[in-house]
Amino acid sequence: MIKVNNLKRDFLQGQQRTQVLKGIDLAIEEGEFVAIMGPSGSGKSTLLQLLAGLDVPTDGDIQINNKFLNKMNEKERTIFRRKKLGFVFQNYQLLSTLTVEENIAFPLHADGKLTNEKSKMINALIHSVGLEGLNHKRANLLSGGQQQRVAIARALVNNPTVLLADEPTGNLDRAMAEEILGLFLKFHRQNKQTIVMVTHDIFAAGFADRIILFRDGVIDKVISRKDSDYAKYLANFMA
Fold first, then answer.
1. How many domains is the chain partitioned into structurally?
2. What is the pLDDT of residue 28?
3. Which domain does 139 fall in, by range?
4. What is the pTM of this model?
5. Are β-strands 2-13 and 59-64 bridged in parallel, bridged antiparallel, or unpaired?
6. CA–CA separation, 187 vs 203, rounded Å?
7. DSSP per residue over the chain, as a string?
8. CB burial class (10 A; 0-12, 13-18, 19+) of residue 106?
9. Rounded CA separation 72/161 (Å)
């Protein structure tokens, strides 16, 4: 589903060039749930921005669903992102004066008017994320956990090939974070949704099939749920 080859990203600050990604090779299978962890400045969020087509690499290839993002122009990336990718932000990024239903429907307006079929899909998503009865409640009147549920439904409304999430539980307490992660797991298992999640929280990462650890712009370690020491690693990390 996702193939990254020799991916590099440099940033210029005055005359100083900083290499944030130093040649990343990565493959993510269709239907896989992957967590990316690492200290601040390790390059994990930069990678997510590149996978989302919100930034372009200095060098290397990004292939998603057999399409090369790095070979697209800005307009092509925008269309690809709208049709194939869903993005969940840490700060929700909802339109505060719009209702739950209107926020979820917002990405669909780019492709024309809402049809009855799309309206039914929105209602089904509202039910799936546990927001029944809140269709017409404004986003600024919702709790943080409810807002993140809206953000997840909005990210899924176009039936994306890949769901990307940047610290989706960063602003939530543990109980609410567990509920949100349960939703990710639900869509991953029931719909075989491919998910790539950046997180600093090993508790959140423990929901994933694989944990990819970043350090200084390179992949330092990859831990799979299939590995015999997966549970031991999580326990040691959380101790």
1. 1
2. 96
3. 32-56+73-238
4. 0.91
5. antiparallel
6. 19
7. -EEEEEEEEEEEETTEEEEEEEEEEEEE-TT-EEEEE--TTSSHHHHHHHHTTSS--SEEEEEETTEEGGGS-HHHHHHHHHHHEEEE-TT----TTSBHHHHHHGGGGGGSSPPHHHHHHHHHHHHHTT-TT-TTSBGGGS-HHHHHHHHHHHHHTT--SEEEEESTTTTS-HHHHHHHHHHHHHHHHHH--EEEEE-S-HHHHTTSSEEEEEETTEEEEEEETTSTTHHHHHHHHH-
8. middle
9. 18
Sheet with 2-13, edge to edge strand ranges: 16-28, 2-13, 59-64, 67-68
Tokens of 169: 């539980």
Supply the CATH number for residue 150's domain.
3.40.50.300
Which residue reads 């040691």 in tokens? 236
Q: Please identify every stretch of the chain with a pLDDT value under 70, giving residue numbers as ranges.
A: 111-113, 234-239
CA angle 16, 20, 23 (to 5 degrees): 120
In this structure, the strands spanning 2-13 and 16-28 are antiparallel
Residue 16 in any domain: the answer is no
In a domain, 19, yes or no: no
pLDDT score of 238: 52
Q: CA–CA separation, 180 vs 144, rounded Å? A: 11
β partners of residue 222: 212
Contact 160, 85 (CB under 8 A): yes
Tokens of 148: 């993140």
